[in-house]
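Continuing the batch. This is chain 6 of the set; chains 1 through 5 are on the previous pages. Same settings as before, nothing changed between runs. Recording input and output for traceability.
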Amino acid sequence: MADKQLTQTAEDLATVYKTLLLDLPLAATKWGLGIGGQQETTETVWKAYDASVRLTSATVDTLYRAPLFGEIAARSLNVFLRGQQMRNALAGVFFTGLWQSVGLPTATDVQATRAEVQALRDDVRALNLGVQVRKKQAAAAKSEGQGRTAPADVSRNGDGRPLRAAA
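Output for chain 6:
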């Protein structure tokens, strides 16, 4: 099994080198001179691409199977996460002082303000909806009882207070 993989890897490596260094320049030259066609050049490029993909896949598979790679990845991940925690803490300390000195709101303040504005929007929409419903009900009641309305009290304004006489 290992011999077969090694043989395939060696063949792919040889194919990539031969294609990139000999076949592709030759096919491109033929195409440029009008002797060969685009089809020949395209086939040569795909041959090199397929061999390089097989070679890269085999190399990556071999790398992932190595225990040393797993150990190095685990240690570097641990170091990376600790460094990230340290950077977050330092950034929090630095930017908190910066925002306070400049007078800009923090992200938490902005998010809280957005939540309050959204709540106000919802309240206004609910009030508008209620007003519209009341207007429709009043219009329906008015259309039902046309001509039977009581005379309006001219001595009072809309909020129930008496009107002032003009001086």
